[in-house]
Design a protein that fits this description.
Layout: E1 3-8, E2 14-20, E3 47-50, E4 54-55, E5 59-68, E6 76-85, E7 91-100, H1 101-106, E8 110-117, E9 121-129, E10 139-148, E11 161-163, E12 168-170, E13 175-176, E14 187-189, H2 198-207, H3 215-229, E15 238-243, H4 246-255, E16 259-262, H5 263-270, E17 275-277, E18 280-282, E19 301-307, H6 309-312, H7 316-326, E20 330-342, E21 357-358, H8 360-372, E22 376-377, E23 380-381, E24 392-399
Parallel strand pairs: 13-23, 14-23, 15-16, 15-19, 19-20, 20-21
Antiparallel strand pairs: 1-2, 2-10, 3-9, 4-9, 5-8, 5-10, 6-7, 6-9, 11-12, 14-24, 17-18, 20-24, 22-24
Helix pairs in contact: 2-3, 7-8
Amino acid sequence: MTMTSEADDGTGDPMTEVVLDPFGYLGDAVSAVRGLNRDEEPADPFYVFHTFYVDFTPGLVEADLTFTGLRSRKDRMMVSVHSLEIRTEALGLVLKDDFSLRTLAASGGTASIAFEVQEGFRYAILARTGTPSEAVGESLTVTCRNYPGRAGKPVVASDHNEYRAKGMRDVATLVTNRPVKLAKPMSQACTTAQLREPAFREWQSVLGFSEPADRFQWEPVFVLNVLKAFGVIDAGGTGLGFGRDYDAMAKALNGLGCTTASAEALAAAAAPAPTSEDGVETKDGYESPVALPPPTVMRSYDFLWSMGLCDVLPNPTDLIYLVEDSIEYLKPGGMAVHMLTAQIGRDQLGLELAPGTFDRNRLAQLSLAIVGGKHEVAQLNMHTDPGDDGPHSFGVIVRKNGT
């Protein structure tokens, strides 16, 4: 629910106060700060809240996030404000800030942010914790004061990025929809035009693929092309591979002067010896279909990649966690390319998805989780071939924070 009231701030300036439903956007999702909306175990241990996208009058918005009964020993809460352009549905990052929940609990429970709003956009406020939350609370109120025409701090440039000659650059929106090129990669889906590009043909030859070309050939080609575009292959880097087709990828990368390792093999080598109960072998403590290498494994790879994980992780939230966790294996500035299965047509939003499939909202959620960890994600391009209802192969490009 969104409630508004007209007032002024004591200076005579007009002001509209808006109280936002902190949990409106994700509906029944349980906050990881226990007790805020429902006494249930959260499916996402990092999620705090996400308001609806709402209209404000152009000007300045000051927002107070007020917790009652908040208790936390260590959690840090990353708060971000996102814009939704009404005409194009493009998402953009307006502001990022982070707060210690422990400090908030000791100082009254209110975190305050301010941001400028523009005509033609709606805005949402959301928050996540940096680690699985152990915080508890009784309630959360999000109160916004909208001052029409008043200027504040300059709008923060987006931290979401796209390709530019072995680097990334700031762009204004998280999501775009325009024709894509394999030669200048961003986070994008496979299209027929890319299968005809000279760059595709070159990698097709390196990988030993034959005609006809399809999206399953495009997936390893896209991974290799991104690593080439960002200079990783030229430097003869070290790489870590997750998921299917590891051997073919390793052969191609090793032939290009890189050194690679299989995440699955490293995890298996470090796992406890299997035991047998009633003839069925089990691994002690094994919980996920995708096991990560242990902390003792080198965590300074130049790049990593994954393919086919949507097939073994039917819950996209689990794959989002894996993408976040895998970043720890990269050196600062290291690159990651993750291949997902997606249904990204505008008219497919809200439809029931096949297991392991991402729609536009889930892709945006993945990107926001990456950016919330202060890393970079290449701009999401939702362009697909006309009439192609999917499923689509979709590559997401990530770069680890360089500090």
